[in-house]
Specification:
Length: 217
């Protein structure tokens, strides 16, 4: 956020006018980014619920940013090919977190351990002489990237690390969130999540624990 993509990539998906966010502006301040920041705080504090129109706008702007990133990656790949190193390069495209657009009364990211924040893209492009192809269907973690890269380079993998090579990773998948001093009261708690098969358990320091069957919910 504030999901402001440079032109011409700021108009690929957006159909709702941006000025609907300005109703959240403070007096004498019509800056869009400041209005969005106020909206985020209103939603997180529980004082406001996104309208469908606002949600559609923010998601379309986020999609514009993804389209712009796709363009930038294309420029990078073209340059690597021009340098004749693309076919011999390991490329990893990954995100550090997902993004919430009103789910569970959250905007942007942090404060929760729900799927909209924990499920992320992870794409690996191996050099052309590497036979590894396909999709890993099982749940894996960012900590698995480190040993996977070491294995690709034929470097030893240190003992005692959390991750495992992606192709045969089978360790528990966990995530944590620790409260911040500026969080609203309902988010002032530590969280720990663990996955086992189709089930996900979220432990909370305020005893409001949650258990989900992810195939149904």
């Amino acid at each position: 956020q504030p999901y402001l993509t440079p032109p011409p990539y700021d108009k690929y998906f957006q159909k709702t006018p941006k000025n609907i966010i300005l109703k959240h502006s403070s007096p004498l301040d019509l800056n869009y980014s400041n209005a969005l920041y106020r909206l985020i705080n209103e939603v997180i504090s529980g004082n406001y619920h996104l309208t469908p129109q606002e949600r559609d706008l923010l998601i379309s702007q986020y999609d514009d940013e993804i389209r712009y990133l796709d363009h930038c990656l294309g420029l990078l790949f073209e340059r690597l090919k021009a340098l004749n190193v693309y076919d011999n390069t390991l490329i990893i495209v990954v995100s550090d977190h997902g993004e919430a657009f009103g789910e569970h009364d959250v905007l942007t990211h942090s404060r929760t351990l729900y799927e909209e924040l924990l499920r992320i893209p992870m794409i690996l492009k191996y050099p052309s002489n590497n036979p590894q192809r396909g999709i890993i269907e099982k749940r894996v973690s960012l900590v698995d990237l480190f040993p996977t890269i070491l294995a690709f380079l034929d470097f030893p993998i240190p003992s005692g690390i959390d991750g495992e090579i992606l192709s045969h990773s089978d360790h528990p998948i966990i995530a944590e969130w620790h409260m911040q001093w500026f969080d609203p009261d309902k988010y002032r708690r530590d969280l720990k999540a663990i996955y086992q098969g189709k089930e996900k358990y979220i432990w909370a320091s305020n005893s409001l624990h949650e258990l989900y069957d992810l195939e149904q919910d």
